[in-house]
Amino acid sequence: MIVAILLTFLVHVFLGLPLFLALLTSSVVGFFFIDPTMIPRMMPQQFYGGINAFSLMAIPLFILAGNLMNAAGMTDQLMRLARLLVGHLRGGIGHVNVLSSVFFAGVNGSAVADTSALGPLLVPAMRKEGYDKAFAAGLTAGSSLIGPIIPPSIFMILYASLTNVSVGSLFLAGVIPGFIIAAAFMGMNGWYAWRHQLPRSGQRPSVQELWSATLQAIPALVAPVIIVLGIVMGFVTPTESGGLIALYVVVCGALQRRLRLREVWASVTETARLTSAIFLIMAASATISWQLSYAQVPAQLTEMFTPFLDSPVLVLLLLSLIIFMVGMFMEEVSSLMLLTPILMPVATAAGIDPIHLGIIVTLNITIALITPPMGACLHVAAAVSKLEITALFRSIWPFVVVALCVLGLLVVFPQLTLWLPGLFA
């Protein structure tokens, strides 16, 4: 059954069928192996059940907040602050690329949105500073991995909805790993700048310039703090936090006279378009997840992992390998929806903390965004840099290796993810 579902899915994807239809068609094939008479009864039930969770309402609200911030020019203010902080260093524009992704992560939580927003501005700027086009595109795609790790994160909300893990704890758990990824890519950029003797660009900013840029960026910098602390301290639910932050951005944009009704409406329509795509994929994935559970695939996988359950590190490495391989060929939301219910029992049997597992799964899924051949961030980065996608496929692997090294570090040292949530337990 699993092989038939997988083959059906791959064939329909390569034929160009929309992803949610490919998933639905594959689920129909799965029902023929279980019981065809269940199609009219179970398929609609599972399709609707996959998105019938109040916590998922946070997703469109966070997406809306990010779109409103872009429309209000808040991301431009964050990028200006990043330029003043690190732009004067050797390879400064590359450091700006990474630091802008850190700032932008607290606004949107989407790697693809990060690449789309920052790529058109930073890739040409990096080319002017002497960067190779492939490295500039690779760094833009690679640093976008920070988006879903530093809160808020759409992937973490999805994981929490599947496992009943606290969204606030997951958000806190992503902070330190997000900064580790940023440090790793800034180190990689620094090495590239030193090796190619790139010139220092610009002068060290004055205290007055830094103070002015910080004051202008404060509304955007405060947003992720409101999100995380509001959820962690129990003042608001994730859904209420999303609504609060969207309202906050509208008020700030209106007061600064940067956000008009036309921009608000454009942000709402873009949010509706993206949310519809995500929820359709989630609903379609839920039907296949139910079939896999009905076929006792999680129990069979746990039984296969029984010899390794005494070593949580080894189990996490093996699970990471599975997620990485699946993520190379499947869209990220569907990968998360399909794999989490299957892998969770294995992790539980091995004594792995579900919060730690959530960060490992999220980072694995995110790395797939820059991994050929299906990585969405790769295709966006290639488009904005006007680079052949095959050339980017060849040059992206050092960035993938760096991200995998960070993943390995988080697997071996779980306290890097669990320490901060433990402080608020």
- Relative helix content: over 70%
Query: What string gives the helices and strands in order?
Result: HHHHHHHHHHHHHHHHHHHHHH
User: Which structural category do the helix and sheet elements fall into?
Assistant: mainly alpha
Number of helices: 22
- End-to-end span in angstroms? 42 Å
User: What's the total count of β strands?
Assistant: 0
Largest β sheet strand count, sense and barrel closure: none
General shape: globular
In round numbers, the mean pLDDT is: 85
Give the strand content: under 5%
- How many whole angstroms does the radius of gyration measure? 21 Å
Keywords:
425 residues, mainly alpha, 22 helices, 0% strand, globular
Architecture blueprint of SSEs:
Elements: H1 2-14, H2 19-34, H3 39-49, H4 58-71, H5 74-86, H6 92-105, H7 111-128, H8 133-143, H9 154-163, H10 167-173, H11 175-195, H12 207-232, H13 238-255, H14 261-294, H15 297-304, H16 312-327, H17 332-349, H18 354-367, H19 376-385, H20 389-395, H21 397-412, H22 415-423
Helix pairs in contact: 1-2, 2-14, 3-14, 4-13, 4-14, 5-6, 5-12, 6-7, 6-8, 6-11, 7-8, 7-19, 8-19, 9-17, 9-18, 10-12, 10-22, 11-21, 12-13, 14-17, 15-17, 16-17, 16-18, 17-18, 18-21
Structure notes:
This protein is an all-alpha fold and 425 residues long. It has one domain. It is 76% helix and 0% strand. It is built from 22 helices and no strands. The protein has helices at residues 2-14, 19-34, 39-49, 58-71, 74-86, 92-105, 111-128, 133-143, 154-163, 167-173, 175-195, 207-232, 238-255, 261-294, 297-304, 312-327, 332-349, 354-367, 376-385, 389-395, 397-412, 415-423. The chain starts with a helix and ends with a helix.
